[in-house]
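Field: COMPLEX_INPUT
Field: COMPONENT_COUNT = four
Field: RESIDUE_TOTAL = 1400
Field: MODE = joint
Values follow.
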Amino acid sequence: MIKVGIIGATGYAGAEIVRILQGHPDAEVVWYGSRSYIDEKYSKVYGNFFKLVDARCMDDNMDELAKEVDVIFTATPQGLCASLIKEEILEKVRVIDLSADFRLKDVSVYEEWYGIEHKAPQYIEEAVYGLCEINREDIKNARIVANPGCYTTCSILTAYPLIKEGLIDPDTLIVDALSGVSGAGRGAKVANLYCEVNESAKPYGVAVHRHTPEIEEQLSYAAGKEMMINFTPHLVPMNRGILATEYASLVKKDGELPTAADVRAAYEKYYKDEYFIRILEDGVYPETRWVEGSNFVDIGFKIDPRTSRIIMMGTIDNLVKGAAGQAVQNMNIMFGLPENQGLQMVPLFP
Amino acid sequence: MIKVGIIGATGYAGAEIVRILQGHPDAEVVWYGSRSYIDEKYSKVYGNFFKLVDARCMDDNMDELAKEVDVIFTATPQGLCASLIKEEILEKVRVIDLSADFRLKDVSVYEEWYGIEHKAPQYIEEAVYGLCEINREDIKNARIVANPGCYTTCSILTAYPLIKEGLIDPDTLIVDALSGVSGAGRGAKVANLYCEVNESAKPYGVAVHRHTPEIEEQLSYAAGKEMMINFTPHLVPMNRGILATEYASLVKKDGELPTAADVRAAYEKYYKDEYFIRILEDGVYPETRWVEGSNFVDIGFKIDPRTSRIIMMGTIDNLVKGAAGQAVQNMNIMFGLPENQGLQMVPLFP
Amino acid sequence: MIKVGIIGATGYAGAEIVRILQGHPDAEVVWYGSRSYIDEKYSKVYGNFFKLVDARCMDDNMDELAKEVDVIFTATPQGLCASLIKEEILEKVRVIDLSADFRLKDVSVYEEWYGIEHKAPQYIEEAVYGLCEINREDIKNARIVANPGCYTTCSILTAYPLIKEGLIDPDTLIVDALSGVSGAGRGAKVANLYCEVNESAKPYGVAVHRHTPEIEEQLSYAAGKEMMINFTPHLVPMNRGILATEYASLVKKDGELPTAADVRAAYEKYYKDEYFIRILEDGVYPETRWVEGSNFVDIGFKIDPRTSRIIMMGTIDNLVKGAAGQAVQNMNIMFGLPENQGLQMVPLFP
Amino acid sequence: MIKVGIIGATGYAGAEIVRILQGHPDAEVVWYGSRSYIDEKYSKVYGNFFKLVDARCMDDNMDELAKEVDVIFTATPQGLCASLIKEEILEKVRVIDLSADFRLKDVSVYEEWYGIEHKAPQYIEEAVYGLCEINREDIKNARIVANPGCYTTCSILTAYPLIKEGLIDPDTLIVDALSGVSGAGRGAKVANLYCEVNESAKPYGVAVHRHTPEIEEQLSYAAGKEMMINFTPHLVPMNRGILATEYASLVKKDGELPTAADVRAAYEKYYKDEYFIRILEDGVYPETRWVEGSNFVDIGFKIDPRTSRIIMMGTIDNLVKGAAGQAVQNMNIMFGLPENQGLQMVPLFP
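Field: COMPLEX_OUTPUT
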């Protein structure tokens, strides 16, 4: 039984790790870290766990924690994980960081987009970017896994095969994405009050959102060259879900545009054995409701011969594949378990 | 492995049975009955099952079905199950009916409130009312289980111990209840369109809702005398969830009103070993979000010494404990499985 | 042109006063008071007023304000109005207080339910309870109008005629009410975040909600004797709207229960000339969507001969008739304008 | 007083015309046409009009109607207006058609995208495309005004000045848009049920949506050459509102990209005197909540120097500026009234 500690267990992502691990046969949470709720019963903070979780919240004491658990999930604001990590901890325990601290390989890019100094740049190199379907092999032995962002996971996986196979021109990629409100976290802010969000849709972080360089870095690896994209996130009134609609110009081969079959073949090449990635049938486009509560990524596409562009669309549940679910998937890989262990939740509808 | 057939598999309750049984280790659906979608892939109707369910929808052929399965769930409109049921079927297979056909023991009450003739009154007597926590023993050997209604399950369980123990006056009971929209089913009606329901709350079926006699009959057994209640359902803009707020005058004993401890003791007497019933701590009231997606019933209460009344409050997920979950719980009881087998889903929040 | 000052202009009720007065031909807002946003452009706080309101937020300086305006609306937390009010102000300006400070005639009841000391009890006696349809005459010359609470307005108006006419037994009155989330105000609290409220319904303040004594006091006047009720508010996921479902035992006359015609006659006696009160046709029950954005009160009822009770149902928009709209209606009465001046907004649907 | 007849008065757009004209000082509805509800009281279909509209629904008899009114609004499915229109009618009455029948100048494009034969192609030429801010002069004397689509209005107005001024490359324009559910109309379809739409976001009509050629035609006029775009609509769970996020490559002048000031100057050149168009301040992006219930168009933009693209964002209320409001604005222009007469509704928030 893998012993799990969570730092930031009372945020939405932390609570989702708890929910998922309740159904995981090989792991159990033994440390519910939450600075804000120390000594309070966890089930007082999240009533869904009443009679299921009896524990109380603990401090975010990473040294102590390292002695007691096999893996630590840090579901905390940017900067915290980097400020706590050190050799003594990594010698004892493996870390899956849900923040952005170890996602970007170029520390100056991190510091520019996040506006904070990186406290542990010495670990950036060894940290593995935990996009399971792409980096599975490296994750196995990683001491630090940088769990990808929610927009990022969806955006990258949706475009990856087509970029890798050279079917689209990387310089034309535009990612327009929608997110449910849980992505904004549980902080008490006026902007996230029910009445402010309900019955409205809005763009935000236009051309400056922090997931941009993360998407760019990973897709650049696939493209084999540096690429820059436009990424526009929008907030829409729903609890969960990310939908990425991506546009790119198709690359002609021998004067011909790729066909739908070519595109499908590219997706199949990379994803046909992936349990969590579902390439939808022709003419079917993803909807967030069909993945809610699950670790699935649904992907559809449409070629527009009029403009020679392709529209790629992907959906995930931001708290599952976009956070806690992928974190558990990473844990499964790191500990040699079947990758979908404890992650076979059927999407909840309606 | 229990072989399961579902008649009405493409309604919301039917689809919820499918979802739950996907995670059940001892049962599998082998017949997805749906008149409206015969020969269509089930996962075309419900995209959440893409890559999880490969089957196509079948006709509602109960005779054929009876040969192939161990248990049939009928998740169909009132009257259908009664019109199909017969000895040849009951000799081969057990039936869990999610409609109201076998819930009321007095056929004239059924015909009055539902406005249709009962086609199989000869089976009313033997059918067992499948409120698991109350009728567990009778369910074990039942050939026909009448799975309770959603409002009913919540309303009865919330008041049952206090009526049984004589703590409240049955003639003063008023049940005011809220329901999410999935309770209205998947039929294409203007009244259930998004824009008609969203941003609004409304009462309906005031003093004439069909769950009224069902609540009354069951609580009358507990009261040891016939009782009549007021029951007012309301539609509120959410997918799932029922909240019943119930009012009754407390009965004095030796000139003293019952205390909170007395009330709690009554609840514990009947529910303390029940996995699915959670009696909340003092001062905590149920919220539908804490049971969403699960088979739990959360119950809280408050005594008002000013008016000598008690306010009892209960919540369930209408599609789980109010329909498919309780149906599976009944199946578990009927087949000698642990009662919570396949039903340990943690409530999904947010 | 009536000059209007608002203290608390950046709360939801304050902003609704601004919205309504934008369309009022005889009044204009000249002071947008808001401690939290001093010197900021009002339209930065509420983007709907961009290009419509050019003013900046001002301090809550009541002395200064009294010199510049004809009427002050205080849309502030409990206690603030009472702490600022004084003779020098009341000599210059009329005050419509949207808080609870002057609603209850018994200062000890106020202090008990609100848990704060009343700073200006000397004005309680002269303050007029601004439920326009009931106290119209007294409002005309009032210096201080205590604008009723949202639940209160709806609950009282729905039951008033039947109590006044002795058709129902006051001691049996139970008010079960639902509210949209804007009633909770714009404060940044976790409990009011989108994800906490969405897809859930919950009771709160059970048997202790502060609107209880307010309802009781006003209905006691109608009953001609002191009465106590049960009042249970619930939060449901929508922006606006209150729905009160009220239960009471009908009083027999000469051995006969009142008929629907009797009940209708009672409502007509008091409301038939009221522009804002709409008594619905038989069999029609109120829905919050039909009053959204307007100052209407919709009322319906149903007699249940089985239990000899009546179910009365009323709806309002909590921010309009439950706050800002009624406040403007009070202003109209105080300044001799047609009562529905500037208040003829048609409900917005969908 | 302008006498107004509405064909299709019980659809959402029709009902919104009724709502707006209730507050219009110079127009009154005298004919509530609705095939589905003939002889029923209009306020039975839309309870918000109870006590405000006493009329009953009438047949869609355009000949009869033409004798009784000054202007007819046709808020009906594609094809109906074209099938009814004829010289005898146009001699007597002016027509504002909210369907797509007269929006496209090339009848073959209409027939291709809409899949139906055009029954009155002889009127296409004279019909004026009623995008008020662009075609004001032509609208004045038009007999037939083709009221623009909802997505179209928002998409065109957001990009128009930049295309007209040559600041962006028309061939790179991508329009990614979100819509509330009222845009789908009031037809009883499973896809628009509350539970199907709530808690989900989805793209639809990808690369084939019918508003595409309409946007292209109008923007082509501005570009001075034919252009083709990608347009992807998405359904998000809210009643009202359209948000268009548009991407295009900026065109360098003398080797320099246009600045934000250049872009702002272009918008101001065309819109600075427009009552209904609000160009937001730098760094402010439109949100649908700020225009809900009003005829405003809010527009913001952001230049991304990294990719040399601009992101333009616009919002409208689909039922107001996207349908009924613009129709009334067209009526005002046609009848020589101030353009914002009866249209000064302040956006409703929250």
